[in-house]
Design goal:
Keywords: Acetylation, Hydrolase. The chain is built from 13 helices and 8 strands. The protein has 309 residues and is α+β, with helices and mostly antiparallel strands. The strands form 2 sheets. The protein has a 5-stranded antiparallel beta sheet with strand order 2-1-8-7-6. A 3-stranded antiparallel beta sheet has the order 3-5-4. Bound molecules: glutamine. Glutamine binds next to loops.
Length: 309
């Protein structure tokens, strides 16, 4: 076990990257859209950001990648900041135990999705943020740019178009929930916002920094408050229990941190009060989580002793 002094992060990251490099099993990139299928599963990057904005990294940590479902954390926080607990009348907070794009539970629970991090729940959150702001995806983008300090962070419109062309499942989720009155905007408007949200491109450095408010108990990079410390705790709790879909139990067991994955191969994680992490490697396991990403976070908490347990 090492001390938590920042001086120790770089050697830890270097050691993890060297270990990952030697690992033969790296998973397979998501293949539901061509833009993601083309990624090399051997790529790997990892960044750690301290609450004061100091950031350490290794490998491809400055390479932008498709953030995908990682963005669900930020839209949740942005909507909670605006409408508070009213959101919870429209989406639950229980792990689903089902794949991220599952439809089955909605019929039994009146169109109220289990949690904000499966696709159905994320669609509800984006719908509500759209109503609050008039442009959910641009609100998200502005937030990520401000928190990361990177004005070049963008939405990849080619990926968004590809998401839309292969978006039948998400369209079905949107229409199904709309039939229960749980979607406020026209479904095509919502889907356009959601596909653009998924298509945000950011690096490990960007996303580790943008997650910082969850290590600072709700405080943004500029010192203003986004969430109350209680809300920040709540978002971290939902990440722990729901952030890696039907693998959340195994992720908590191995890593011991609130985390959120995306099918682009990224995972963000939070050590409240200490630091935030983002790791990227495009090869996924069968539940849609980055194989090397989970392995690297597992090694990080083992080597540093930093975890919420
Ligand atoms: N764009 C993907 C989808 O909605 C995001 C899913 C994910 O990252 N798990 O299917």
């Amino acid at each position: 076990i090492m001390t938590t002094s920042s001086l120790t992060f770089q050697p830890v990251l270097d050691r993890i990257a060297a270990e990952i490099e030697k690992t033969p099993e790296r998973g397979r990139p998501a293949d539901y859209i061509p833009a993601l299928a083309a990624c090399d599963p051997r790529r790997f990057g990892m960044a750690v950001a301290e609450p004061d904005g100091t950031v350490y990294g290794v490998g491809d940590w400055r390479q932008p990648f498709s953030a995908q479902s990682i963005t669900k954390v930020f839209t949740l926080a942005l909507d909670l900041a605006r409408e508070g607990d009213a959101l919870w009348e429209h989406v639950g907070r229980e792990p689903s135990g089902n794949p991220f794009n599952s439809l089955v539970q909605l019929e039994y629970e009146n169109g109220i999705p289990r949690n904000p991090f499966i696709n159905a729940g994320a669609l509800v959150v984006t719908d509500r943020l759209q109503t609050q702001t008039g442009d959910a995806a641009e609100t998200l983008l502005a937030f990520l740019r401000a928190e990361s300090g990177n004005d070049e962070l963008t939405i990849n419109e080619r990926v968004a178009a590809s998401e839309s062309a292969h978006g039948d499942r998400n369209a079905a989720l949107g229409h199904f929930m709309a039939s229960y009155g749980n979607i406020g905007n026209p479904v095509p408007v919502l889907l356009n916002q959601y596909f653009r949200q998924c298509s945000v491109e950011a690096s490990c450095a960007d996303l580790a920094l943008a997650t910082g408010f969850l290590a600072r108990h709700g405080i943004r990079a500029d010192g203003t408050r986004l969430l109350s410390s209680s809300q920040s705790k709540q978002v971290n709790a939902i990440m722990l229990t729901c952030g890696t879909y039907d693998a959340a139990g195994d992720f908590a067991y191995r890593v011991g941190l609130p985390g959120k994955s995306g099918v682009g191969g990224g995972i963000i994680a939070v050590v409240p009060g200490h630091c935030t992490l983002c790791v990227w490697s495009p090869g996924l396991d069968e539940r849609g989580n980055s194989v090397s990403g989970v392995a690297a976070l597992d090694r990080f908490t083992t080597l540093t002793g930093l975890s919420v347990f």
